[in-house]
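Tokens in:
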């Protein structure tokens, strides 16, 4: 994937992109990563998606190669920044784009579509963290707890456990290690993205979606939350992939790509 930077009011945003292999090309597809990772999370699936469209994967502020904000941002602020970056990138896509989100990236997709409805054509969201207000409140303290690194190698142990030691069967070590590196790039801001996820008004925002939407649930996590999300999006198409039981963007990448491409057309 090629690399580019775009300047925004919140600093420079780094993005990866892969040009369409064939012409004419359809609407570009923007992939929105889960926290605390970056656009590199989609490197395994992007080559399955770019036959007839450019695919872009931006890093949200504070993650990957993007500049870090001075404070935790809301989902609305993250969406504003990514939209600004897409408009100002050297390979800025013309016209409306399609969106694909995974996990917390799903909420970012919904918010981008809300803020700029004419800029978005369709969206596909996979394994949606659609939490009720009560669930958000219960998860918030632990999920947003400050990360602390110091001169002791043991301070990296939790990050190693999260990304590598407890990696799913079917995820190669090299892939898990890459995720570990991307997590460390966020530094002590690694949990900042969970603030946006766990303060987002899912019910109100999902019920107001006006775009065609595909909602995909794997068997790995958040199946019932994803089903709940699909029920709240007017006219959405819900698909449950019973064959994707682990490593959704690794082993499951072909199945997810199949559903996304069929929906986008």
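Residues out:
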């Amino acid at each position: 994937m090629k690399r580019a930077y775009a300047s925004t009011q919140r600093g420079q945003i780094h993005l990866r992109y892969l040009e369409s292999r064939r012409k004419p090309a359809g609407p570009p597809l923007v992939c929105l990563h889960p926290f605390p990772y970056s656009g590199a999370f989609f490197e395994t699936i992007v080559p399955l998606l770019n036959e007839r469209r450019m695919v872009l994967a931006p890093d949200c502020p504070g993650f990957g190669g993007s500049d870090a904000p001075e404070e935790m941002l809301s989902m609305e602020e993250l969406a504003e920044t990514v939209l600004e970056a897409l408009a100002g990138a050297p390979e800025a896509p013309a016209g409306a784009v399609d969106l694909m989100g995974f996990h917390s990236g799903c909420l970012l997709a919904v918010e981008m579509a809300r803020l700029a409805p004419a800029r978005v054509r369709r969206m596909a969201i996979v394994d949606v963290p659609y939490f009720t207000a009560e669930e958000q409140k219960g998860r918030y303290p632990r999920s947003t707890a400050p990360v602390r690194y110091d001169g002791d190698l043991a301070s990296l142990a939790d990050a190693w456990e999260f990304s590598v030691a407890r990696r799913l069967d079917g995820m190669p070590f090299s892939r898990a290690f890459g995720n570990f590196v991307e997590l460390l790039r966020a530094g002590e801001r690694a949990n900042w993205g969970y603030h946006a996820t766990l303060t987002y008004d899912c019910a109100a925002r999902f019920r107001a979606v006006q775009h065609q939407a595909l909602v995909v649930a794997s068997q790995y996590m958040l199946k019932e939350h994803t089903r709940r999300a699909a029920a709240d999006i007017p006219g959405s198409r819900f698909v449950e992939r019973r064959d994707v039981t682990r490593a959704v963007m690794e082993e499951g990448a072909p199945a997810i790509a199949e559903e996304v491409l069929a929906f986008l057309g």
